[in-house]
Every structure is written in C-alpha cells, then in structure tokens.
Amino acid sequence: MDSLSTANVEFCLDVFKELNGNNVGDNIFFSPLSDGNNVGDNIFSPLSLLYALSMVLLGARGNSAEQMGKIEKQLNTKTFYEWTSSANMVERELEVHIPRFKLEIKYELNSLLNSLGMTDIFNEIKADLSGISPVDGLYLSKVIHKSYVDVNEEGTEAAAATGDSFLVKRLPIRARFLANHPFLFFIRHSPTNTILFCGKLASP
Questions:
Q1: pLDDT, tens digit, for every residue of 105-164?
Q2: Which of 166, 168, 170 has its CA nearest to residue 180?
C-alpha cells in the first residue's frame, strides 16, 4: 500500500476517533485533504457502494450501541484495510436501503491538531512557514474545517473547505442491507484506498 495513502488513512482515522470521543452520540463528518463477508467476531456488516469513488458503510450486525462502540474502538488503519480488503468483500447483488441524510459540520481543529502532535505551527516563535511564504513571522492562529455530505436518490454529494429510507437499486431479492441504525461511512478513492471523507450517522 502506498505510504502516502496509508498516512492519509491513519490521519483521518485518528482525527475521526478524536472527534468521536468528544461528541459521543452526535453525527460526525470529517474530510482529510460490494457486500462484506463475515469478518472477525461478526459484530459488523461492511458494504461498499461503487461510484468513481466508493462509499463504505460499517454498521453493527446486532444494531446495539455496545456493538457499535466495539467497532469504533477496533477501528484503525490496519483494521480498516482488513475489513475493506477484497478478501473480506464479496461482489453480489443486494437490495440496499440507506436513509436520506445531509450533514454539514464545522469544527475548530486547533486543540485536536495539537493533541496529534501538530504544535509548532500555532506557536508565534516556533512556526516556520518559510517554505510557502517569504513573509517572516507567519503562524496559524486558528484552523476551521467545514464539510458537508448529501446522500439522496440521485447519489452522494460531498465537499469540504478546510427518517425516510430509499431504495438504491431494485434487484431480484437475494439479500438486503438495511441501514436503519447508526453506522460509520467512508468515501474513498478506490484505486489508492485513500479516505476522502469519513463520518458517523448516529440517528438515521
């Protein structure tokens, strides 16, 4: 796996876990710049909806808060790659029901980035931005991240600047994926497995 892609996934999941820890029970959405086989102890069900990009949904099989908490605790770069690898995903036709949802969330990331080790850039004395600007004394005072995702019958729209359910596809019913409970979602660039957006819908 490309080291830049791995670093991207690791950073995204670190930020996601930090946001999740501070916003338990809330919807979460964040952006860093196929149906699943049973995996592990069968506490979750992965689903990948293929676009030019892919959308991966992870939801607890038993739909309980305890099982969802287990998934969130186990989530890291290694488990994300393992759960979404071709070895653990099987391509088959499904009847898929996911809720319409639109999330628009704004975060101030100063304390979060500090907790991940990014400290010097916020320090008036230690910051060194000479590689991007000839002006001396530059440093970051505030980092604001705003992103939104809109999932409806027409597809998924997502963008970032730093109830009802619908049927995605009508097929002969062989299996059904019904996302009527909290789930994690990831929009990724499939060829590189790079996460572009990630979030949690706490109240479908």
A1: 787 888 888 888 889 988 888 888 888 888 888 888 888 878 777 776 666 556 555 533
A2: 166
Alpha-carbon distance 133 to 101, whole Å? 40
What values do phi and psi take at 89, rounded to 5?
A: -125, 135
96, two tokens: 């898929």
Instruction: In whole angstroms, give the CA distance from residue 61 to residue 48.
Output: 16
Cα(105)–Cα(131) distance, rounded to whole angstroms?
A: 31
Show the domains of the chain with their CATH numbers. 3-201 (2.30.39.10)
Rg (CA), the chain: 18
- Rounded CA separation 136/149 (Å): 38
Q: Report how far residue 204's alpha carbon sits from residue 68's, in angstroms, rounded to the nearest whole number.
A: 14
**β partners of residue 18:** none
